[in-house]
Design a protein that fits this description.
The chain is of the alpha+beta class. 37% of the residues lie in helices and 20% in strands.
Amino acid sequence: MAIDDPINRRILRELSADGRLSNLDLAARVGLSPSACLRRVQELERRGVIRGYRARLDPAQTGRGFVVYVTVGLSEHSKAAQEGFEAAMARAPEVRECHNIAGAFEYLLRVETADLAAYKAFHTDHLGTVPHVRAITSHMVMGTSKDERG
């Protein structure tokens, strides 16, 4: 079962847009019988193409409406420094995404807090105290015109 198969691509597109879509509705949208559609979805899940399903929450209503993208540079480029930083970010509930990137900085974070004061506390009390952090640059989100994260 190839991912480049047109029906599989339609299944993935439909489920990406609405993970709560019933198998019956999904089958109708992609032009398959319900049993054939279910077999394909289960195979995509088994192969790890579909890694899970989740609810998209309104950040403002959950107390996380202040979004900041943060670039972080490390002072040391060792495996231990990276592992230590990643472990610290995994323990920080404010950090919703942590990406190791190429370029002038080692990491790109997506941080969600209630407001600027809460972000400042995170920046000062948590991020600024992690060993080997050399540089922190904050990019506050002013508005979002497109967001296709699942």
